[in-house]
Design brief:
49% of the residues lie in helices and 15% in strands. By secondary structure, it is α/β, with parallel strands linked by helices. Helix 4 packs parallel to helix 5. Bound molecules: BIS(adenosine)-5'-pentaphosphate (AP5).
C-alpha cells in the first residue's frame, strides 16, 4: 500500500511516518531527509540546495523527482512506500503517478493532516532530533524519558534544523499554500483524499491514520 502524507511544515508527517514504518513494515521516503543527507555528505547537489532549504524555499522539481525515481527503482518495500514531503507541486504529483505506473504500482490513498498555523509555529520552533538515530523530540510535546539521552538509541547528540526558525517557517508556509495546497484538490478529484485532524495528540493522529488506511485495504 503506497500512501502520501500531505500537510504543511510541522503537521507531523515525519512523526506519523515513523510510526507506520514500525507498525506496518512500510518504507518512508522523505525528500527533506534525502536532501539533508546530500547536504551533510557534501555532494554537489547537497551544496546547491543548502541555501534554498535554509531560506525555506522549494528545491527544483527535477532534483526531487530524480531522488524519488532512484528510490522507487532500487528500494524494496514489502509494506509499501510512505511519501513524506513529496509531492509538493502539481508537476511532482504528475511525475509520481507516472513513476509508480512505470514500476507497476499505484497510490492507495493520500492522507491530508490538517493543523492551524499557530500550532505549526510552536511545533517547528520546539522541534529537535537525535543526531545519531533521527528520533524526533519536542521541547514540550515529546521529551526524552531521561534528560539529554535519546530513548531510542541512548545517544546524547541532539540537534535542531537550521530552517526551524520563524523567519524561514514563514517562507515554508507560503510555499505550502502557494505550491502544495493545490494538491488537496488534485487528489480529491482523483478520489484518493482523506483528511485527519493533525491537532490531536500523536497517538490520536496515529489512530485516525490507521482508520484511514483500513478504509482502503
Ligand atoms: P521537509 O523536511 O519535508 O520539511 P517540512 O515539510 O517543512 O516538514 P517538517 O519535517 O518540518 O514537518 P513534519 O510534518 O514532518 O513534522 P514533524 O513530524 O517533524 O523539507 C525541508 C525542506 O527541504 C523544504 O523546505 C524544501 O526546501 C526542501 N524539500 C523537501 N522536499 C521537497 C520537495 N518535494 N520539493 C521541493 N523542495 C523540497 O513534527 C514537527 C514537531 O511537532 C516535532 O517536534 C514533533 O515531535 C511535534 N509533533 C508531531 N506531531 C505532533 C502532535 N500530534 N502533537 C504535538 N506535537 C507533535
Amino acid at each position: 500500500m503506497n500512501i502520501i502524507l500531505l500537510g504543511p511544515p510541522g503537521a507531523g508527517k515525519g512523526t506519523q511516518a515513523r510510526f507506520l514504518v514500525d507498525a506496518r513494515d512500510m518504507v518512508q521516503l522523505s525528500t527533506g531527509d534525502m536532501l539533508r543527507a546530500a547536504r551533510s555528505s557534501g555532494t554537489d547537489m547537497g551544496k546547491k540546495v543548502a541555501a534554498i532549504m535554509d531560506a525555506g524555499e522549494l528545491v527544483t522539481d527535477e532534483i526531487v523527482i530524480g531522488l524519488i525515481e532512484e528510490q522507487l527503482t532500487t528500494t524494496k518495500a514489502p509494506g509499501g512506500f510512505i511519501f513524506d514531503g513529496f509531492p509538493r507541486t502539481l508537476a511532482q504529483a504528475d511525475a509520481l503517478g507516472e513513476l509508480l505506473a512505470k514500476v507497476g504500482q499505484s497510490l492507495a490513498t493520500v492522507v491530508e493532516m490538517r493543523v492551524d498555523d499557530d500550532a505549526l509555529v510552536a511545533r517547528i520552533t520546539g522541534r529537535y532530533t537525535c543526531g545519531d538515530c533521527g528520533e524526533g523530540y519536542h521541547d514540550t510535546a515529546k521529551q526524552p524519558a531521561k534528560d539529554g539521552i535519546c530513548d531510542n538509541c541512548g545517544g546524547s547528540n541532539f540537534k535542531r534544523r537550521p530552517d526551524d526558525n520563524e523567519e524561514s517557517l514563514k517562507t515554508r508556509l507560503m510555499a505550502y499554500y502557494k505550491e502544495t495546497s493545490p494538491l488537496i484538490g488534485y487528489y480529491y478529484a482523483k478520489g484518493l483524499l482523506q483528511s485527519v485532524n493533525g491537532l490531536d495528540s500523536m497517538d490520536g493522529v496515529a489512530e485516525a491514520i490507521k482508520s484511514a488506511l483500513a478504509s482502503v485495504e
